[in-house]
Structure formats: structure tokens, C-alpha cells
UniProtKB/TrEMBL annotation, chain A:
<dbReference type="InterPro" id="IPR013563">
    <property type="entry name" value="Oligopep_ABC_C"/>
</dbReference>
<dbReference type="InterPro" id="IPR017871">
    <property type="entry name" value="ABC_transporter-like_CS"/>
</dbReference>
<keyword id="KW-0813">Transport</keyword>
<dbReference type="Pfam" id="PF08352">
    <property type="entry name" value="oligo_HPY"/>
</dbReference>
<keyword id="KW-0067">ATP-binding</keyword>
<dbReference type="InterPro" id="IPR003593">
    <property type="entry name" value="AAA+_ATPase"/>
</dbReference>
<dbReference type="InterPro" id="IPR050319">
    <property type="entry name" value="ABC_transp_ATP-bind"/>
</dbReference>
<comment type="similarity">
    <text>Belongs to the ABC transporter superfamily.</text>
</comment>
<dbReference type="InterPro" id="IPR003439">
    <property type="entry name" value="ABC_transporter-like_ATP-bd"/>
</dbReference>
TrEMBL record, chain B:
<dbReference type="InterPro" id="IPR050366">
    <property type="entry name" value="BP-dependent_transpt_permease"/>
</dbReference>
<dbReference type="Pfam" id="PF00528">
    <property type="entry name" value="BPD_transp_1"/>
</dbReference>
<feature type="transmembrane region" description="Helical">
    <location>
        <begin position="363"/>
        <end position="384"/>
    </location>
</feature>
<feature type="transmembrane region" description="Helical">
    <location>
        <begin position="196"/>
        <end position="221"/>
    </location>
</feature>
<comment type="similarity">
    <text>Belongs to the binding-protein-dependent transport system permease family.</text>
</comment>
<keyword id="KW-0472">Membrane</keyword>
<feature type="transmembrane region" description="Helical">
    <location>
        <begin position="315"/>
        <end position="343"/>
    </location>
</feature>
<protein>
    <recommendedName>
        <fullName>ABC transmembrane type-1 domain-containing protein</fullName>
    </recommendedName>
</protein>
<keyword id="KW-0813">Transport</keyword>
């Protein structure tokens, strides 16, 4: 059995609205709780070595916040993160080890510093943290560029001279240059054309195969998730509602939200099919529904659903889900 | 910025004639400031070279070497005049009965020659006598000589003294812009004034930029109480008029170049702090900063190498505008008499000096520095506006 690389337990992130001193005082006197956004609400998940975990959900469900907490860019409001069993507090303190978790960003336009040359963008951290000896940094950068399919003369050019796909390759090379073990791809292809998407996906799969990299692949595209991932977590409004192996999830979705997502997925084989759209809009995270967040849009909701907060529990071995009416 | 972007920037800048003209004027003044000691006709700081005879001369007049004065006293014994002590080239000899010729052997023509204390009955040919004293003065004596004559024969023994004054000599040096009340060449004073004003403006605006931008970035990075503290200090400073802050500081500290710079820095740092904070806050939200955090780069490095360069274009625009503001503040303070010392006049002080004479038709003392200051500040403001237009992402052509 492969070692567990990354583990999150009850991970939460709360965004509080800015309040003036007077407002804080009056809230304290009246005992009013300020309205907070629970962007990520007690998420528990893990990644084993060599595995690719998919995280899927609608926009605004907290995927990107989760990704930034996993990579240590954002602090957590609650819960704990572990890397190879070590708590993140000590893990992140050792800068060079903390490089083992890297991220590929969504927007290739804003994720590269426009004032730095590509060589500096890719080589800066590797040189600063002595991932490779100073003298070898340039060779290392060229090597990374080759690995993502860019010519060596890219080094002296600026990000604005490249297309979206090429920029995303540069972003991947930047992450790979510090020799990570876990790569978090946050909607890494969402901003690209479909043809370029395929190239980047193939590149990621090649890299995964060559180096045995573990990946967390975040997307709203079910087709991509199915193509790339070993296990999938489905998120709804900051909570994980179902977590299973890919084949299992796509074959036997248990949670009504997952079922509806899959039903809405376009397929080539079916000729005439009635789409079953999910009713209504995703609710505002400032005022989430009580109990199960999904109950106002759920076709099989019962009276309990608005009162009981459902916990993720094992449905079949390896298949977790969070619907109290399932089964 | 790389070469291609720079070329494009220059091309866009060049689209406006006003922009190019203001750049040319600003550069001309900068060169004047740098080369002032080389190109100015005189050194206005060298007080020993000033002469009051040159004071308040209108535009286009020549510098003058003032006339010299030669004094000698003679004793006449038995009809022969003998100089007592150094004669300075003056000589007296007999020219017949009751006649004594006094002459100066020199090329320069004399403005006047005066003979004092003649014996009774004697007089000087063609001379006018002092109304009271026994002094005889001949203006522009022909051949630099005068004759002492008498109706009766001159006494055998008597003493007299001679004072010869030579003419003022104009030199080749022309005061193109006239002179001020100290006899300073206004052109030189203006060139040195530009130098002082530009120096104070650039150093003060530059120091304010470094301090203000640093504080702004620090506030943006730390947020919370630090941010609130720095920004409230900015609000506090911005609520006072610049000239009032400058006056207050110089009233406490006294005048001097360093103190004026300090006053300008205290006035201006808050503009940079506010601008750089807001720019940095918007940059900090971009994904490349998150990427830098993910790469575990130290905070100072992220701010200095990633955030700051992306804020620089707007800060440089502010810098250009603030140099002009610093120069005008310094000139205002100098005009009010609390800025720079009298011996190192800036443009503002030159204007203030000329202001005393403006109602006696000595207009040139104030006009020259005033026009130079006006053109310089207008040009720098236009340049700053143009730079702001070009660096604005929503630049419309």
C-alpha cells in the first residue's frame, strides 16, 4: 500500500466581512453573530503517493480556496493539514521541504509576473532555495522548458510574448522546477481553447507518468475528471458530498447532487435524452440553507434534510457520501 | 521593461507634440542645471567678485571695471616741485613763470584731475572750484595734464596735493538679463537657481518616493493595524496645505537646503504611500503573487521583485509631477524668505529679491527667474500628464 502523501481533516476556511470597531461592539452587546462565508466547511480528504485526486463542483463551491489551503498559500480557519504525517505548521516552516507541494493556476495571463523574463520566473525559487546549485540553474530551467515542450530561447523572453497555452506550459515548468511531489492543478485548463486543453492535459499525464507525481486536479469539467483521475471528490457549497473511485462514482453515484451533475453531462452515445437540469441557482454562501446545503434544489429531499447536517460516511468500502436519504 | 515594449512606449509617447516639447524643455532645464558652472558667464556665489557699480543694470549692459584713483602730494621749493612719497605716475614741472604743469603719464584717459590747497591767487586752467574748499577740478583733462597758473608769480615754497581719477572701463562681459541689487549677473543667477531648484526638487521628490513607496508597500503587505496606522498618518498629512507644513517645519528648524528637502519630503511621502498601497493591494490579489508564495519566496522578495516593479510605472508618473510640485513649494518657501540662504539663491529667492525693485521699473530682476520657473513647472507637469496618459492601460488613441 502506497504511503499517504497529503491528508486534510475537517479543513475549514471562514471569510469574515470587514467590520468597524463600532459594529464589532454592537454585535458583542446584542450577541449577534456576524454573517461569515464558510468557503470551505470541514473538508476531509487525502491523497496517496502516485494518485490523482479530482475535485469537482460548480463555481463558488470553494474548490480554489481548498487548493490554496492545500498548497499552504492561504492559512486555515480550522482543521489540520498533514504532509507525510507531519503537521503543516512545521512542514511549511522548512521552506525547502514546503516546495514539495506546488500549484498550477487557472489564469495563465495573471499567474506569470509580466516584469520578469521566463528564465527568472522558472528559475527564481530553484536558485533561491538551492534546489539545484547556482551554476546549474540555467541548465535546469532549459531542462524544464524542454519537458513542457518549449524551446530553450524562451528563457530570455517575457510572458506577454506567448499564447495562453504556452503560458500555461511556463506555469507548469515553474511548478516542476522545484521538484514537487504533489501538484495541485486549479482549473488549469479552464481558460484555454479546447484544442490547447487537450495538449496541456496530455502534457500533465506525461509528466505524471514520467515522474510518479501525485496530483490534485480541480475542475468543473466532469469529462476531464473522468479521463484523468483515480478518485473524485464532489463539492457543494464548501462541503464534500461524495468521494469515491472514479469508475465507482460515475457508475453508481449515490448523492442526489452527484446524480444530477452526471445526468447533465453531455454524452455522444445517447441520441435523444431528456436533460434533467438542476433546479435553481447555487445559493449565496453568505446565507447557506440549513441542514443539508443541497436540500432546496434536491428532488428527493425530506423534512429532516433542512434540520440535520449530513456527515460524510462510508457507503460501500472506499465510497463515501453525505446524503441521509441514500439507500 | 524590455526593448520592444520600450520602443512601443516611446512611439506612443511621441504621438503628442506637447509631450515631446515638454520633454525637450524639461531636458534642457536638466542640462542647464547640470552644466551651470560650465555655461554660466559668472559665478554668482563668489561674493568677492561682486561690485556695487554693476548693481541694478538693465538687460544688455556691459560689466564695468571701476576707475582708479591716484593721489600724490607735492612740495614746491625754489620753483621745483618734488613728490612727497609715492607719486603714482603723477609728475609736476614748471612751464614758465607762474605756471606749473601737473600730468599723469598713462594711456588711460582721466575722468577728472583735482588739485587741492593752492596758494592764494593761484588757480587751475579750465577748472571749476569747489564752492567752499580750495579744490580745483578739471573734468577729462586733455593730455592728462592741467596747468596751475597765477596772475602774480607763484610763491617760492608751497605744498599742494593732486587726486587723479581714471574713467570706468567697460569690459566684454555683457549682462544679457541685467543685474540684481547686489550686482549679480541675472543669467548666471538664474542658471545656478535652476540648479538649486532642480537639485532640491529631484532629491526631495526622490527621497519622498523611496520613503513613501516603502511605507505604502509595507502597509499593503502587513494590512490590519499597521495598514490603518500608516494610512491614517497619510490622511493626517494630506489634510494640511503643503505650504503650511513647509512653513511650520522651516520656522522650527531654520533655513537651509537640507531643511527645505526635509520639509518637502514630509509633505510628499504620503502621496506615494497612498498610491503605492492601492497599487500593491491590487497586485497582491493577482495569481503571480500567490505563485510566489507557493514557491515559498520571502515576503521582502515578493514585494521588492514581484509587486514593486509592477507598481513602478504609475509611481514614476507621480515622481515627475511631484518634482514640479517640490520645485514650486521650495520656490514659494524661498519667496517667503524661509527657504534657502541668501548666498545660494534659488529661483524663488531671485523673484523675491526682484520684487523689491519691481515698482522702480527694474522689472528684469523678477521677470527672468519668474518666466524660467513658470516654463519649467508647466513643462514638467505636461510631461507628467503625458506619461500618465501613456502608462494608463485604458489609453485611448
Amino acid at each position: 500500500m502506497a504511503e499517504t502523501l497529503f491528508e486534510a481533516r475537517d479543513l475549514s476556511r471562514i471569510f469574515e466581512p470587514a467590520r468597524g470597531a463600532l459594529q464589532q461592539l454592537s454585535d458583542r452587546i446584542t450577541g449577534k453573530q456576524p454573517a461569515v462565508v464558510r468557503a470551505v466547511d470541514k473538508v476531509t480528504l487525502s491523497v496517496v503517493e502516485g494518485e490523482t485526486l479530482g475535485i469537482v463542483g460548480e463555481s463558488g463551491c470553494g474548490k480554489s480556496t481548498l487548493a490554496r489551503m492545500i498548497t499552504g498559500i492561504l492559512p486555515v480557519s480550522g482543521g489540520e493539514r498533514r504532509y507525510r504525517g507531519e503537521d503543516y505548521v512545521s512542514f511549511l516552516a522548512r521552506k525547502r521541504d514546503a516546495l514539495k507541494v506546488q500549484m498550477v493556476f487557472q489564469d495563465p495571463m495573471s499567474s506569470l509576473n509580466p516584469r520578469l523574463k521566463v528564465g527568472e520566473i522558472i528559475g527564481e525559487a530553484a536558485a533561491l532555495h538551492r534546489v539545484v546549485p547556482r551554476a546549474r540553474v540555467r541548465d535546469h530551467v532549459v531542462e524544464m522548458l524542454e519537458r513542457v515542450g518549449l524551446p530553450a530561447d524562451t528563457i530570455t523572453r517575457y510572458p506577454h510574448q506567448f499564447s495562453g497555452g504556452q503560458r500555461q506550459r511556463i506555469g507548469i515548468a515553474r511548478a516542476l522546477a522545484v521538484k514537487p511531489e504533489l501538484l495541485v492543478c486549479d482549473e488549469a485548463v479552464a481558460a484555454l481553447d479546447v484544442s490547447v486543453q487537450a495538449q496541456i492535459i496530455n502534457l500533465l499525464m506525461d509528466i505524471r507518468q514520467d515522474s510518479g507525481l501525485s496530483m490534485i486536479f480541480i475542475s468543473h469539467d466532469l469529462g476531464l475528471i473522468r479521463h484523468l483521475c483515480d478518485r473524485v471528490a464532489v463539492m457543494y457549497l464548501g462541503r464534500v458530498v461524495e468521494l469515491a473511485r472514479t469508475e465507482e462514482l460515475f457508475a453508481n453515484p449515490v448523492h442526489p447532487y452527484t446524480q444530477m451533475l452526471l445526468a447533465g453531462m453531455p454524452r455522444i452515445s445517447v441520441e435523444r435524452r431528456a436533460f434533467m437540469p438542476i433546479v435553481g441557482e447555487i445559493p449565496s454562501p453568505l446565507h447557506p440553507p440549513s441542514g443539508c446545503h443541497f436540500h432546496p434544489r434536491c428532488s428527493s429531499a425530506s423534512g429532516h434534510c433542512s434540520r440535520i447536517r449530513p456527515e460524510l460516511s462510508e457507503w460501500t468500502p472506499g465510497h463515501m457520501q453525505a446524503c441521509i436519504n441514500a439507500g | 521593461m524590455n526593448r520592444a515594449a520600450l520602443t512601443e512606449f516611446a512611439g506612443r509617447f511621441g504621438e503628442s507634440r506637447i509631450g515631446v516639447a515638454s520633454l525637450a524643455v524639461t531636458l534642457t532645464f536638466l542640462i542647464c542645471a547640470l552644466l551651470a558652472p560650465l555655461i554660466s558667464p559668472t559665478d554668482p556665489y563668489d561674493l568677492s567678485r561682486l561690485q556695487l557699480i554693476d548693481a541694478l543694470k538693465p538687460m544688455g549692459s556691459h560689466q564695468v571695471v571701476p576707475g582708479e584713483e591716484f593721489r600724490a602730494s607735492f612740495a614746491v621749493e625754489d620753483g621745483v616741485a618734488v613728490a612727497q612719497g609715492d607719486a603714482h605716475g603723477l609728475a609736476a614741472q614748471s612751464c614758465g613763470d607762474a605756471c606749473l604743469e601737473v600730468r599723469l603719464d598713462a594711456e588711460t584717459p582721466l575722468a577728472s584731475l583735482q588739485v587741492r590747497t593752492l596758494p592764494a591767487g593761484a588757480s587751475v586752467e579750465g577748472a571749476s572750484k569747489h564752492p567752499v574748499q580750495n579744490w580745483w577740478t578739471v573734468n577729462t583733462p586733455a593730455g592728462n595734464s592741467v596747468r596751475i597758473v597765477s596772475d602774480a608769480p607763484l610763491p617760492e615754497t608751497f605744498n599742494f596735493s593732486v587726486i587723479a581719477r581714471s574713467d570706468d572701463q567697460p569690459t566684454d562681459l555683457v549682462f544679457h538679463l541685467g543685474t540684481d541689487g547686489f550686482g549679480r549677473d541675472m543669467l548666471s543667477a538664474i542658471l545656478y537657481g535652476i540648479r538649486i531648484s532642480v537639485f532640491v526638487g529631484v532629491v526631495a521628490a526622490g527621497s519622498a518616493m523611496v520613503i513613501g513607496t516603502g511605507l505604502g508597500l509595507f502597509a499593503a503587505w502587513r494590512g490590519g493595524a499597521t495598514d490603518a496606522l500608516i494610512m491614517r498618518a497619510v490622511d493626517f498629512m494630506l489634510s494640511f496645505p503643503a505650504i503650511l507644513v513647509g512653513l511650520a517645519i522651516l520656522a522650527v528648524l531654520g533655513s537651509g537646503v537640507g531643511k527645505v528637502i526635509l520639509a518637502v519630503v514630509l509633505v510628499q511621502w504620503c502621496y506615494y504611500a497612498r498610491t503605492s498601497r492601492s497599487l500593491a493591494l491590487s497586485e497582491l490579489n493577482k495569481e503571480y503573487v500567490e505563485a510566489a508564495r507557493g514557491l515559498r519566496l520571502p515576503a521582502w522578495r515578493i514585494m521588492a521583485r514581484h509587486v514593486l516593479p509592477n507598481c513602478m510605472p504609475q509611481i514614476i508618473v507621480l515622481f515627475t509631477l511631484n518634482i514640479a510640485a517640490a520645485i514650486s513649494l521650495e520656490s514659494s518657501l524661498s519667496f517667503l524668505g524661509v527657504g534657502l540662504p541668501l548666498t545660494q539663491p534659488s529661483l524663488g529667492m531671485l523673484i523675491a529679491n526682484g520684487y523689491e525693485y519691481i515698482f522702480s521699473q527694474k522689472y528684469w530682476i523678477s521677470f527672468g527667474p519668474g518666466i524660467v520657473l513658470l516654463v519649467m513647472i508647466v513643462a514638467m507637469n505636461l510631461l507628467g500628464d503625458r506619461l500618465r496618459d501613456v502608462t494608463n492601460p485604458r489609453f485611448e488613441r
